Each structure stands twice: as C-alpha cells, then as structure tokens.
Structure prediction request, 119 residues.
Amino acid sequence: QVQLVESEGGLVQAGGSLGLSCTASGRFSTINSMAWYRQAPGKERDLVASITSSGYAMYLDSVKGRFTISRDNAKNTVYLQMNSLKPEDTAIYYCNTVATLEGLQYNYWGQGTQVTVSS
Prediction:
C-alpha cells in the first residue's frame, strides 16, 4: 500500500505562482511514473503533467511553458511548479503514482488539494 501526501494548495492571484509537492510512502519496490491531475467543478479529471522515473516529462497543452513537473527519486517526491497562473487553472489537484510491488503495478491517488486562482 502506498500513501501519497500532498502539500497544501492555496489562493493566488492571476499571474502568480504556486508550488505543490507530493511524497509517496509505504510498501513498494519502486515508484514508476508520477503525475498531477486536476478536476474543476463539473468537469472531468485531466492529466496536467507526468514524469517518468528517468525524468521524461509530458504536459497538458494549456500548461506548457507555465508549469514544470520534477521529482526527487531519493525522496519519492514529485513537484509541480505553477507560474503565470490563470483563473482557468482553478481546480482540485491530485497527485498520482504507479508503484511496483512484488512484480505487480498499482495505481494510487493523493487526497487532492485545492488551487484557486482569482482574476
């Protein structure tokens, strides 16, 4: 079992910045991909950014150039630096990871953290 603990989100003005972190703990062999998703009210959960254990990152088109995902493998932690925030970035942000245990892969979610961008 893996637990994902996310940092607190917050309220920021449009154009501002905010950083999120998420640390995995528990019983696993390896942490594979780590990612951030977000879900706005009445909308589906979207993949915002993902990063492999080797550092290959992918982004949602609307956040490219503004958000940066990174990870510290030694700390089993993934970060999301969000710059030039827009009101449309307002959502609950969820950390996600795929972890391997005894040869099987499992998908885990954090509890979610609210990010609100005011105009």
Summary: The radius of gyration is 14 Å.
